[in-house]
Write a structure and sequence with these properties.
mainly alpha; two-stranded antiparallel sheet; two-stranded antiparallel ribbon
């Protein structure tokens, strides 16, 4: 048994055991509970619904690894989507060309980066708690968006935008391909780059990282800027998927991004965690949502189950840590 566990850890990593076990449980339970669960329609639905949540989770991941949090990701995504929408509207609306879309996307990414830049600068130079800083940014972005849109939607986009949210390439949904590209980029950034190493160091002990010669202020600013850019990518996907933009889109995703990170083995205090287990955890949560929908549960019950699952994950991790101490 020990040899099997060692081999599994060597191939997948010890932090993959929990997400893979949860995936197996969800598939088996709902596979027996509903004859329609293990079908192509279910997995196709998951493939289209997963990307915006997945990209937002990646936006949450890096701040958590530094021991922080970015509560403004969903409203950053919405403001970025509004930026793209306004650019398209200013250049003809449904008659806007690809050039207007590229310009709007660049501006949307810049808005996301600017949001992260402001948070990163405040956190890095004032040492204010990331929860307070990101909460303030969340309130600001929400109020700004409501003021500019008067609480309404913006819709009416060119037809070539729709495939980004609903199209497929060789049978693979386009938004899923975008998510996979973001997962690969995040994995490489965290595991192969100096910024990734510095991110883990800061999460483990920011003072030790500073004494080791790491420019912790620069790293924190970059981390929150990248978080903002990733949130903006999610905003572009949501615009294409819903064919409209409003300030409240994806507001319920905030809880789920945190849950996905913790279910994927991310240390809530920073310094430890990988992208791939978080990706598996995202699949688990989306399959859980689809399974509950097939059983007739509404979205409110699904949200309640996610909240309970977050508590269960924290309790299980506490018991696991206690068990390891006893064994040692």
């Amino acid at each position: 048994m020990n040899a099997l566990a060692a081999r599994f850890n060597a191939i997948f990593g010890g932090d993959m055991a929990g997400p893979l076990a949860a995936l197996a449980v969800v598939v088996v339970v709902f596979g027996f509970a509903s004859p329609h669960f293990l079908t192509g329609a279910t997995f196709g639905s998951v493939a289209f619904q997963l990307p915006e949540l997945g990209v937002l989770t990646l936006a949450m991941l890096m701040p958590i690894l530094t021991g922080g949090l970015n509560l403004a990701i969903t409203f950053t995504a919405n403001i970025a989507g509004l930026t793209l929408a306004w650019t398209l509207q200013a250049n003809g609306g449904i008659d806007a060309g690809p050039g207007a879309f590229l310009l709007g996307s660049a501006l949307a990414l810049a808005v996301g980066a600017a949001s992260g830049l402001v948070m990163g600068l405040v956190i890095a130079f004032t040492r204010a708690h990331p929860i307070l800083v990101s909460l303030s940014m969340m309130i600001f972005l929400r109020g700004l968006g409501e003021f500019l849109t008067h609480g309404g939607d913006i819709s009416g986009f060119p037809t070539f935008v729709a495939p980004i949210g609903h199209g497929s390439i060789l049978g693979i949904p386009v938004p899923l391909l975008i998510l996979i590209a973001c997962v690969i980029a995040s994995h490489i950034l965290l595991s192969r780059s100096k910024l990734g190493f510095s991110t883990y160091m800061i999460g483990s002990n920011i003072e030790s990282a500073r004494y080791s010669g790491i420019n912790t202020r620069k790293v924190l600013v970059l981390v929150y800027m990248l978080s903002g850019v990733m949130a903006a990518v999610a905003g572009i996907i949501m615009l294409a998927r819903f064919n409209s933009v409003r300030v409240g889109h994806g507001e319920s995703y905030l809880l789920i991004t945190v849950l996905a990170c913790f279910l994927g083995g991310i240390n809530p205090f920073g310094g430890f965690g990988r992208v791939l287990p978080v990706f598996v955890a995202l699949i688990v949560l989306q399959l859980l949502s689809s399974g509950l929908n097939l059983l007739g549960a509404n979205q409110h019950l699904t949200t309640a189950v996610w909240g309970i699952l977050l508590i269960v994950v924290m309790v299980l991790r506490w018991f696991s840590a206690k068990f390891i101490k006893i064994v040692k």
